[in-house]
Amino acid sequence: MSQPAQEAARRRTFAIISHPDAGKTTLTEKFLLYAGALGEAGAVKAREGRRSATSDWMDMEKKRGISITSTALTFDYRGMQFNLLDTPGHRDFSEDTYRVLAAVDSVVMVLDAAKGIEPQTLKLFEVCRTRQLPVVTFVNKYDRPARPPLELLDEIEQQIGLRPTPATWPVGSAEDFAGVIDRRDGTFTRFTRTVRGSAIAPEEVISADAARASEGSRWAQAQDECELLDAVGANVERSSFLDAESTPLFVGSALTNFGVRHVLDTLVDLAPSAGERLDVNGTPRSLDDGCSAFVFKVQANMDKSHRDRIAFVRICSGAFERGMVLTCHRTEKPFATKYASQVFGAERTTVEEAFPGDVVGLVNAADLQIGDSLYVGSPVEFPPIPRFAPEVFASARPFDTSKYKQFRKGLEQLDSEGVVQVLRDPQQGDANPVLAAVGQLQFEVFASRLEIEFNAPSEIMPSPYESIRFTDEASAERLKEIGGIRILRRRDGRLVALFESRYRLQRIETDEPDLMLDPISVG
Ligand code: G4P
Q1: Atom of ligand 1 lying closest to residue 258 CA
Q2: Within this chain, do residues 61 and 130 fall inside the same structural domain, yes or no?
């Protein structure tokens, strides 16, 4: 095997998705602890606290307890290199979260055992499904009162249409949570609590017979439940997991480190490595081909003193070496990768080489945009990163009208970066644009960057729109005659109709079925 193929085979590039507070940060920290990358749990948070206010992003992150700037955490475990891509875990939701999922090979979904599936998890899961991403499920917080595990399985299957296949099953719960049965070999892993899980939980793997003797009634109950699972054949299956039809499910408690190792081991044993990526025509790019990558995130002005713009790319094939000159497929221009780094919070480390599955931050990437494909050797274009149906809308204007030029420049730039979508009136150009986004956070980032980078402090006001549809010129003429609708144009030239009332949209769809009103769906 060539070096890129060998390195790709030991990459596990994944993201953790969860509803805020389900335990994503805690689990991340415990992964690092188990991988030996952290001396003591708690350091991830401590590290966040240490982030000095070197950039406005970090100020905003600190204020709101969110993560906008981090990209990938890299650690080794059992000979594999894990690249854990950061997804903002805040209630506010942005397109960045979706885009990160375009760059990973699998996902760990964390659920709170007392709550189950919550709206945000559902939304993120939709994206996993459209991208056919394999999902490992971790049901967290079993050290506290939880919902009956069988009920949670039902909920997962009903709500997200993914067949849960429990790999481990809890023995006891809350204070009585003693450990997990590994359904694959019948063994019992008994855990011992450490103070807030600050060290790896001492665990003892014992046989089913020994567990029956020591665990009494809680063992008997867990056994009964496992028999039920056996009867319905809910067994872990690699092929349906890889096809995103079933999800290996683990139970545990990230806080006390229970069950964390099982998840990491599964990522090693079952999760896909960085495989060949399909190009825009559906042809796989061989891992041994020249280096190729695509941009999934662009971040400007991460550090005020640098005023830089970093394009985060996922390497898809070949070996990346710092200094190599890549070609951008869209512009056909060369891009010299003199500065390449990994970014985590305020910390940056220079990357000298990288392989398929890795994430590299290309500094000084003024000309690169989200979705751009880069390559050396034979040209390649990867599929565009999908845009998502906006759910919130706003209008914007500069506080100071003399700053209109700067405002327009910012509008153009931030639209091209995908910070928000700018919808323009075909007749009015840049006047009265509507900003569209997946979450409010995108508007805040937009306003902050207009002020800091473009010197155009602006007023962002909520717009009354509730729904958006694609339309065409003929239908637009008719829609203009109806009140409460605005026809605007996206950057890519497509016409969209915004509706002040969902109800009115429904009426029009029913009454005038010939009008083109196509939903903007994920895809
Ligand atoms: P998030 O990144 O998904 O938003 O969640 P995070 O890990 O920050 O966890 C949210 C809260 O849940 C934290 O408590 C954390 O300690 C707690 N938690 C995480 N995993 C477990 C678990 O397995 N069991 C229990 N009982 N609690 C868990 P907090 O009070 O908000 O923060 P802290 O003061 O404990 O740091």
Answers
A1: 23
A2: yes
